Each structure stands twice: as C-alpha cells, then as structure tokens.
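QA checklist item 7 of 12: single-chain prediction sanity check.
[x] sequence parsed
[x] length recorded as 188
[x] structure emitted
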Amino acid sequence: MTAPIIPLRSAPYQGPSDLLLLFRSIKLLVCDVDGILTDGTVSVGAEVETKRFSLRDGLGIKLLRWQGILVAWISHRTSAATKQRARELEIDFLHQGPENKVEICEQCLDEFELEWDDICYMGDDIVDLGPMRRARLAITVPDALEEVRMIAHYRTHARGGQGAVREVAEMILRAQGLWHSLIEEYSV
C-alpha cells in the first residue's frame, strides 16, 4: 500500500526553537547513502568498488545508537562497501536497491513500530523527495538537488561524507538532553 502524496511544505520551519522541537522528537534517523554518508563518488576497479565514509559520521551514528536512537540506511544503489560499513556500525536497518524509498521507509517504520512523525530523514536527490515530504524532520546537504533543498527543514553546514551526519547526530543528542552526559562520560 503506497502512502498518499503529501504536497510540498508551503514554508520551512519558522526559527531555531521550532527546529529544536523537531529534533527533540526523533526516534529514528534514516539516511540515504551516496551523497549523505559519502561524497557521492564511487571508485571502481576491475572487481572492486570503494567508497569513502567519514569516521566522524560513524562515531556520531554510534553515539545515537548508544543513546537508543535507531539508525537506518536506505540506498537506491546496491554496494558491497555500503553493506560492509553498515555491518561495522551495526546499523539497525539497511536496504539497498531501486525500490521506492517511501515503501521501504514504511517497512522500516512497521518493523520498529514507529510513525513518520518519529523520523529524521537525510537525503540529497530526487529519489529522496517522497520520504522527505513525509518525515517529521527533513535534512539535506549544501550541494543537494534544488528541489530537495526547497523542502528541507535544515541544510547542514558540512557536505555529504564530510561530517553532515555527525552534525545532525549532535543536534539530535543536544536537543534531547543527551549530549552533556556523553561529554561528561568521555571527559574522565
């Protein structure tokens, strides 16, 4: 069953306090992979494909998971490198393939018994428009497709694959009052 098409938002969030409220309610961070977790490039050799993932993004994801925030990756493109990195970070939900991302998000939400209002979706291209229109919090990166930038609640300062996910992870943790305890824990 396909979710109804939700029209474009008439206006983005109204200010920092509204954005803070959106970050406070997040239970699941859903990320596109290429262009969000990577810089959107792929190195292809005779039999090997490689991608560059940010270690800072990786730690940000681990910090979220340690605090009970679920993390999902949904990629339109299948890649062994993505699968390997998801396994290393113990990602809660991974889907790779050309299926409709709205339908895959709904499968993820069903699995975790969550609603669209519980998720932050990070995307950068045309295949991300549907989930971004439905998510409580839609985030993109500076070089995203113009139509994606227009519907995002927030655009990161960092580019994809260069700390954008870490930036969002910290914002979620700070908004939910979880950041200070992490700082204390690692300051000992």
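[x] summary fact logged: The beta strands are 28-31, 43-44, 49-50, 70-75, 93-96, 119-122, 137-140, 154-155.
[ ] second reviewer sign-off
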